[in-house]
Automatic annotation (TrEMBL), chains A, B, C, D:
Keywords in alphabetical order: Pyridoxal phosphate
Assembly: Homotetramer.
Lineage, top ranks: Bacteria, Pseudomonadati, Pseudomonadota, Alphaproteobacteria, Sphingomonadales
Co-factor(s): pyridoxal 5'-phosphate
Gene Ontology biological process terms in this record: amino acid metabolic process
Domain Aromatic amino acid beta-eliminating lyase/threonine aldolase: 3-286
Database matches in Pfam families: Beta_elim_lyase
InterPro entries the UniProt entry points to: ArAA_b-elim_lyase/Thr_aldolase (IPR001597), PyrdxlP-dep_Trfase (IPR015424), PyrdxlP-dep_Trfase_major (IPR015421), PyrdxlP-dep_Trfase_small (IPR015422)
Protein name according to UniProt: L-threonine aldolase
UniProt record similarity statement: Belongs to the threonine aldolase family.
Superkingdom, natural source: Bacteria
GO molecular function: lyase activity
Gene3D superfamilies noted in UniProt: Aspartate Aminotransferase, domain 1, Type I PLP-dependent aspartate aminotransferase-like (Major domain)
Length: 333, 333, 333, 333
């Protein structure tokens, strides 16, 4: 059983159905009826006007957002272990034409106003240093922690006060909202978020993410940047249809809840082995090399995460029956 | 009936089936069994070693190829009406970090050795001018014309002699090969092509194109550039599966032939109205505004192409029964 | 005697004197008293508020201006033979991060509103094409022609109406103003110019040009871009001092007039051999290969300019006595 | 008396003389006799073939070197407090098209093989992370420490073993070599350095630095990049002449020794206040706010360097007589 990541899980049947249903001729690019429905559909969900672009990957969504918020000569404050810093191969630098990621600290890859303020305090205002133009936070974080609406709002307030844009990498936004039980607006635009990478791929989609701009004026240039990056698919309706299917009947939330519930099963089994609180669908454990080998020998796959630690991620489609054998095996170590 | 473009046509059922068949857990990114099969599958098709990257759009394929062949301070010779120059929103400049497209002339968007040599002759060797590093040709061209193996080879020879890489934009490569009746190797690497954007989207795919490197050493940096551009999809198996489905039983060729045959029906009807010879699946007609309006009034949609001209493109799924009413209407003008 | 270009002429003694006079400790970068004086000094000259950045080359001035006026996904309309297109090695693409130069035609490298409008008419508004954001004109042009205030104003009006910025490459601005006899404001900001590359190097300076923003709000980002491009010299006072020396007692104008006068001597000698009217300090002649060889044999050096033509440029320090032997030799051909 | 930095000191009279001596017509750009002499002159100095480009700033030299050693998708290992990271406004990212600076630790801004190996160990080889392509060290460091030939050689060996290029930022190379008393080759190419930014501006020059490639094959692309960055001055002879004047009779070394000697005077006075050993011409002191104010009140200017510390830099032209009053004032605190 694989617990490497949720990013390779199968696609939800409703998404496949949506692809089949969209398999008819319509206008190319984003002129089709599915794409055209996105702005309104997300406006309903978020209870505010927004502009939405489909893209196939979280990297594309994140980096288009950063390029919208930061000029080439500026910087984006993010966590030292943020996905955009660690695992996107320099894509932020590519899309922003060389803007700098300005690294802050924080437990579990979580930024705080104090951490952000510390970065800002270290930047002189002269032209020799790179000025911050934006902040990027990940919710849920790379370590499965959740920012609450209040925590985001505190960052949002600081950002606004200092003239910085605020981006949220929501590769696991569904898991975060499912865990919080809040309205999605409360943890985004109402808390000061300007642009959200709303992830669907890890949550049951195939290859469609939504880049949601809560400041609609940011979208125009991003539409051009999307094309310029080769992301304007001519049959865009197959991306829009995936997203709409995930939003229908709140499938995104149901899938997020399911994955979170699976992670809780593991968390209970792990007990004091946990490196971070398990708030979403990721579980970080202390495991000796021998213990890790024993689990693998029993058929469970996962990533080592530094020395003596392991990462296990639960996918939307992994049931309690799938997970319990692993939970039992962890307990039995 | 829509004749705007083949780029928005429905997806072939075999492709949808392939997506469903791939809907199981496998390794993320391009570590899955479908992606892993591509190099060998294309090597069989082309009868030579090659390295293949899936990407979702032709723009991504083209621009990754150009970035592999041309440094930021170099230039790429292409036709003044090449898709990379006219309709990719500056994506070549983005991917190459500002390389210059060096524009050549030629009937029907077709380059010739003489045209390329003319561009080269106009470039001084000093550091004040942008040196050519590559040539990019489109087969079939933007006007539906075909380069024969001999024509490509003549360009390939010039390119090699002058130290230039050679890229082929094959958004409609299937249509070209179907029309030529040649082996795909003859019109590509045997004729000097280093990198081919092998298009499947216009030909029945959903959102997968293959970037084929016939010089395998070009692939390593391109794999990094693909990630950096946000094109490394975590569920890449759904792209690879599409491509494999299109290659199975030469579906790509069958679809290309079908579209070409449809275009011939229109060409016969158009007679002296034709602006360019109809060699693939595009038909350029002389139409007065009144004539165009009459056709549209009868339910046929297409693009105006400059003043007094129109472009009609036949898709893989348009049958003779679909096309004949338009052919008749054109005859009746 | 060399007539290759004015760009390698000696430095005016007043400029050398200014360097010596500045040879004392002062604040680094542009914090010194000379640099600090530039804004006010140019404001007096142009009778309007302006922000001025010294840079060592015209290429740097031009490209910082273009980057201020055009985003990476935009385009700059310029003449097919503009220096920024032909002789700056892709620097505009580097500084703008891949914006496209959109080429217009016009006699003697001179743009017209009609030529610009023609380029604009060829650009669709969709995201597949590169939208124009700016126009760049060269005064005097690369062929030594002059835009009058009315001609610039007509372009400025079109630019404003279409939302385009207007840049003037004034590598030979002194020659243009000297020839026009107008106030420098009339041919720049009063005619709609937003940014001027005010050249001093060809006119007696050593390595200092002034980038003049007539829209002061454009300067802030450009100050950062200048540093980022490695152009913020720590001993900037030696650039500012050069520029101030050239402005003192209108030395720039005197030098421009002197060079123009020399060119007129050649123009009279050339008569019907002239390819372009001689309005500034450049002379383009029809010369057979034999005639060119004869002149060179007599000790006169110059560039061939295509087949059967030659370019001769007069520098600020070439006197009538220097030039007459060449004029006589041309007459004697 | 100003002790802010050596970067704004006056120009050595020999440099001004050289400018005057070069004030004659010669070929433009780097075609003149002074520029043409550089390769050979540096080859003599370094006892190896090298290719040399003049540029006006250390930022330009550094960033051209980095662009020669690292592709856009790669990374450069440098110290967290390296000038290229902290004080060049993102110029490395601009010139490299978005390569990443990979930050290492080390006392006094000095890298060690272990520190570099630690960074390398943290980078996975997959395409999701940015691979290191080069190392950049500063000699003397930003804190005035010196790398010995052995220390550089140890880094050079690691670099070669791992396939990394090695760049040395020698903004204060003269101070380093003067302090080491070694042959300049021993601390550069013989120790594995591929490219050296050889600084002259801080050491008595006006606005000319030398980018020295010890791997000559790196120069060709850099010549194009220099032009493309707007750094190819048309009257380049005035830069080359400065550099040649600094090399004549080892003026660069004499100036470096003089500044170092001045710093030793301060170091002796500072005693236990020193934050770092004083090995070149920079002195970092512990000073309370009150003490700093007292020194300033006495007419001594310098930078605060974090809380409770100050930086004082000695310039080539500051004599013992200039420095003693400050030394005495520090002793008297």
């Amino acid at each position: 059983m694989r617990f490497f990541s949720d990013n390779a899980a199968p696609v939800h049947p409703a998404v496949l159905d949506a692809l089949a249903a969209a398999n008819t001729l319509d206008t190319a690019y984003d002129g089709d009826r599915w794409s055209a429905a996105l702005d309104r559909r997300f406006a309903e969900l978020f209870e505010t006007e927004c502009r939405v672009l489909w893209v196939p990957t979280g990297t594309a969504a994140n980096c288009l957002a950063l390029a919208a918020l930061c000029p080439p000569y500026g910087g984006v404050i993010c966590h030292r272990e943020a996905h955009i810093q660690v695992d996107e191969a320099g894509a932020p630098e590519f899309y922003t034409h060389g803007a700098k990621l300005l690294l802050a600290e924080g437990d579990g890859a979580k930024l705080t106003p104090a951490g952000i303020a510390g970065v800002l305090a270290g930047i002189r205002g002269d032209v020799h240093q790179v000025p911050a133009h934006a902040v990027s936070i990940t919710n849920a974080t790379e370590y499965g922690l959740i920012y609450t609406p209040d925590e985001v709002a505190a960052i949002g307030e600081l950002a606004r006060a200092r003239g910085l844009g605020l981006h949220m990498d929501g590769a696991r936004f569904a898991n975060a909202v499912a865990a919080l039980g809040c309205h999605p607006a409360d943890v985004t635009w109402r808390a000061g978020v300007d642009a959200l990478s709303f992830g669907f791929v890890k949550n049951g989609g195939m290859n469609a993410e939504a880049l949601v701009f809560f400041r609609p004026e940011l979208a125009a240039a991003s539409l051009r940047r999307r094309k310029r990056a080769g992301h304007l698919q001519s049959k865009g309706r197959y991306l829009a249809a995936q997203i709409l299917a995930m939003l229908d009947s709140d499938l995104w939330l149901a899938n997020g809840r399911a994955a979170n519930a699976g992670a809780r099963l593991l968390a209970e089994a792990a007990g004091t082995r946990l490196v971070h609180a398990v708030q979403a669908n990721e579980v970080f454990l202390r495991l000796t090399a021998g213990e890790a080998a024993r689990l693998r020998g029993a058929g469970f796959d996962f990533y080592d995460w530094g020395v003596g630690e392991a990462r296990l991620v639960i996918s939307w489609n992994q049931t309690a029956a799938d997970i319990r054998p692993l939970a039992d095996a962890i307990r039995a170590l």
